[in-house]
Amino acid sequence: MSVTTMLAPSARNSTSSTSSSFVPVTRQNTIGSDGAPRSVRASKRYSVTALYLSMSAQDKDMEIEDELARVQKTLRDLKSRISSQSKKNFVLEKDVRYLDSRIALLIQNRMALEEQNEVASHFDESSELQEGTFPDDRKTQQYGNLFFLLQSEPRHIAALCRLVNMAEIDSLLQTVMFTIYGNQYESREEHLLLTMFQSVLSAQFDTTPEYSSLLRANTPVSRMMTTYTRRGPGQSYLKVVLAKQINNLIELKDLNLEINPLKVYERMVKNVEEDTGTLPANMPRSVSAEEAAENPQVQAIIEPRLTMLMELANTFLSTIIDNINETPYGIRWICKQIRSLTRRKYPDAKDNIICTLIGGFFFLRFLNPAIVTPRSYMLIDNIPSEHPRRTLTLIAKMLQNLANKPSYSKEPYMAKLSPFVTANKNRISKFLNDLCEVGDFYESLEMDNYVALSKKDLELNITLNEVYATHNLLEKHAKELLQGRDTEHLTILLQELGPAPPQVPRKENRAIILPLFSRWESALDDLSAALDITQEDVYFMEAKSIFVQLLRTLPPISAAVRRPLNLKKIADVAATTKDIGTFRKGIRGLELLNQLKDLGVISEVDEYQILREEVEQELVHLGSLKEKVTEESLKLDEVYKTIRDHNAYLVSQLETYKSYLHNVRSQSEGKQRGKQQKQHVLGPYKFTHQQLEKEGVIQKSNVPDNRRANIFFTITSPTPGTFVISLHYKGRNRGLLELDLKLDDLLEMQQNNHDELDLEYVQFNVPKVLALLNKRFARKKW
Amino acid sequence: MQHRREYHIVILGAGGVGKSCLTSQFVHNEWIEYYDPTIEDVYRKVIDVDGRSCILEILDTAGTEQFTAMREIYMKAGQGFLLVYSITSLSTLTELSDLRDQILRIKEADSVPLVIVGNKSDLEEDRAVRRDRAIMLSQKWGRVPFYETSARKRQNVDEVFLDLCRQMMRADVGGSGSGGGASGGSSEKVYQTPRKRRFCVIL
Questions:
Q1: Could you give the CA distance from residue A7 to residue A629 in angstroms, rounded to a whole number?
Q2: Mean pLDDT score, B112-127
Q3: What CA–CA distance (Å, rounded) separates A287 from A264?
């Protein structure tokens, strides 16, 4: 059983005994991974858990400072550091990707000055984000309402995911994965995120005509699921199942396991030629694939390699199967959704098709990319050399062949590895099905949401630009979004917010803490009314919680903590201490003992045996919990270190670019170095057909002469280096045609001596367009 | 025996657009019926281009975006590129721009032998990408050849590979790659067909 499971409240953990072992203090880790159906009793027990957790969430006046509390705090800190560091890395990666492409243009000397400035501005303040607040409280409140709604009702985000295009996905991805549901180890956010996936997945199943095209395309959802698999828990898992074996393998730099006969033959020829200086007559330089495969020498080389490959792949497979319980809950749950959606949508689907689809997620998008390119998954430090790289690719192909019906017609030589597929077909099928055997969380999610409502301090660390970008996307897709069911609240909030503000320049972007609260539901004062539990349960839980807390607070040498426990004595001792928190707990403990006695739940005669035993069990559980927590901390420490290293790598990459750009800019000095480009929209500027024709911008027009007077163009520059050219016809509000242009596209066309820019009705001359843009949009800078 | 030139072709494009089906049709005359996502497959075929025999080594790549880290190595090794999208999905076309940018960056060139391929043309009823969208892209890239193909029906399959071969041969002869350019010969190229003018309809 995984550590994660051990930490989960018992109700989610139906394999545990009837004892209820709750985790007080925190609720950051309630993701279990066992799949047995929950009993009614357990379900009720869960309600109690939620209540209990909500009590401790509200109860801030008592800080427990024992060993357990300390290691738990370490773990909590570590988790929040991993979450925030992941986000930083994500942003950095985006920057590096962007600069990768820009710098290439610079190298080819094809970047306009203003764009150089823009790139440079990327570096300004690219270090730490300043903290700040919203300019006005009303907005804070409105956005607080909006983001509470978005977070607690994932269907809005799910709908948005289906509407956005790939160009919009990056900003949405960041906000959704690292901000709205950014606490990677917090059950409520995790469950809401998974609910969101489910809703998008099920929509995808509904709109895909045949299963063979399911989950194949690169969509916003597939990207989100990948990003999800690469968060903390997924990273830990990959380390556990892959890191050691991959590292062992790449150390064997000279181990060549190529089995493609053509490649083997080629190398053989090359070796012979190098050794003897000539080629024997019976050894032609190039042969067909069939000839190579039939060559006995080639066969002799390949034979032992096949055995070795199968052994290697088998080790990989065994490690994966043996560590099924290390697989993060959310990843298993996604597999489960794929299975149940397939069964629902295609009732005739055979087991192998279900396996194929699960494998299409678990192997194709999660494990195999890490096997093939371990460095980008931070599993190894250096890019592997040629032979190990090929071996890893072959292993990934073999694993993928297990999940899919392999078509050896693609690469006939792979058929030699079919014994591996045959031998493991049942094993993999069982494994993929076992992966799906995890419990659902809907019930606990409902509870978590109650708890969230009763928590007064729900908040989101978010940046201004994330807020605005999300608002922008909602606004842009409002028409479709608000068509759905139950969107009244979103409609109201968007109406009140008004138009979405544009992105602020990087320098003015701020990290803010946005308090989240619901506009429609108020905190539940009486949680027990909302849940299926009695007053007795409530008292009993509270009493247990209080006594456990008291026992952890009182000095271990105190006579009160001696076994067998004397609950009354403990409460008495606490009620006489000076510490106000402990004092209150003591008084409350005494009250509760009396109330429970009056209700007939416990009796003084047996010294409150039922309650006493539960408290003792809980303490035992907490004792072992400490070790588990410490163990998990060690593991996460590794993960944290890895992503810190990755961060360092990214930062150094940025530094390189920075100095390169600095050089280029100081070379082109004298023009207007250092001038900061403002990010506001320039234009639209209006041009008549006649005007452009005269200037030679229009080099060819298909507009009939008598209509030309009615045609005009507008050019806007939304950001430096990007332009929108629209063609209008008088009397119509909407343009007939719109063309998005990047300055470097134009430059590239010019470079290629391609001077026609086609607007369907007219053709522009590229150099003239460039001249026009320079004149119009550059002049505004000075 | 005449020494045959060897050319390296890399097939790129989003997941599920039919890269493997296209390649398998070209190399083995075979249609792959079931779902078998590619991680990395290598094919070899000897073909005759305008009377010259050459060996093609064709690298069929993973469309699954999670494998993008491998692309750089492929692009370094490749001499000609088929950028494949599916006419049933607009996003698969838009993904091509990033691929081309990356190729040019890695090649440090302004143009490379390249063909835009709109596959699944037999699925006309599911068409989501109008021809002129791809033609626009082809124009934008300097008149890169563009074909619509059907791997299922084996339509235009040989043509795209032949066009690419001619480009690679020309680049080979001319030293520096001379860009997409019109390749001589028989193959019909979509962008040359006169385009419908929406103008008259609208006004």
A1: 8
A2: 95
A3: 12
* Whether pLDDT at B199 is above 50: no
Residues of chain A with CATH 1.10.506.10: 144-229+457-494, 233-435
Alpha-carbon distance of B6 to B79, in angstroms, equals 10
Provide mean pLDDT across the span A390-410.
89
Segment B121-148 mean pLDDT: 93
Which of A164-168, A485-489, A686-690, B21-25 bottoms out in mean pLDDT, i.e. has the lowest?
A164-168
Chain A partners of B134 at a C-beta cutoff of 8 Å? none
The nearest CA of chain B is from the CA of A761 a distance in Å of: 7
Query: Which chain A residues have a beta carbon less than 8 Å from that of B85?
Result: none
Q: Is B30 helix (H, G, I), strand (E, B) or coil?
A: coil
d(CA A34, CA A15): 8
Using CA coordinates, name the residue in chain A closest to B23.
Answer: A410
DSSP H helices, A378-526, are 386-403, 418-435, 442-454, 464-476, 478-481, 488-497
pLDDT tens digits for range A118-169: 667 666 545 566 777 777 888 889 999 999 999 988 889 988 988 887 778 8
Strand partners, A436: none
Chain A nearest-CA distance from B169, in A, is 20
Q: What H or E segment, with its residue span, contains residue A108?
A: none
B6 → chain A, closest CA residue: A286
Find all residues with CB under 8 Å of A548, minimum gap 6, and list them. A24, A615, A618, A619, A622
Residue A672: predicted pLDDT: 42
Average pLDDT, chain A: 79
Torsion angles phi and psi, residue A758, rounded to 5: -95, 120
- Please determine, for residue B121, whether its predicted confidence score (pLDDT) is greater than 80: yes
What pLDDT, on the 0 to 100 scale, is given for residue A427? 94
CA distance A267 to chain B (A): 16
Confidence grade of residue B189 (pLDDT, cut at 50, 70, 90): very low
- Flag whether the ipTM exceeds 0.95: no
pLDDT tens by residue, A471-515 = 999 999 999 988 877 888 999 999 999 999 998 887 788 888 898
CA-derived radius of gyration, chain B: 16
Cα A517 to chain centroid distance, Å, stands at 24
Best of B20, B36, B96, B130 to substitute, by most chain A Cβ atoms within 10 angstroms, is B36
Domain A144-229+457-494 CATH superfamily: GTPase Activation - p120gap; domain 1 (1.10.506.10)
- Closest chain B residue to A222 measured between Cα atoms? B65
Domain ranges across chain B? 5-202
Reduced to 3 states (helix: H, G, I; strand: E, B; else coil), residue A319 is helix
Which of A366, A371, A409, A657 would you mutate first to test chain B, the one with the most B CBs within 10 A?
A409
How far does the CA of residue A536 sit from the closest CA of chain B (Å)? Answer: 53
User: Is the backbone of residue B125 left (phi > 0), alpha (psi -120 to 50) or beta?
Assistant: alpha
A233-435 belongs to CATH 1.10.506.10: yes
pLDDT at residue A749, as a whole number: 66
What integer pLDDT is reported at residue B100 of this predicted model? 93
Which segments of B140-200 are extended strands (E)?
Answer: 146-148
The pLDDT value recorded for residue A137 is: 84
Fold classified for B5-202: Rossmann fold (3.40.50)
Query: What single string gives the DSSP state of each residue in A544-601?
Result: HHHHHHHHHHS-TTSGGGPSSP-HHHHHHHHHTSS-HHHHHHHHHHHHHHHHHHHTTS
- Whole-number pLDDT of residue A782: 29
**pLDDT: which is higher, B51 or A655:** B51
Query: What's B155's DSSP letter?
Result: B
What number of residues does chain B have? 203
Find which of A385, A390, A401, A407 to mutate to test the B interface (most B CBs within 10 Å of its CB): A407
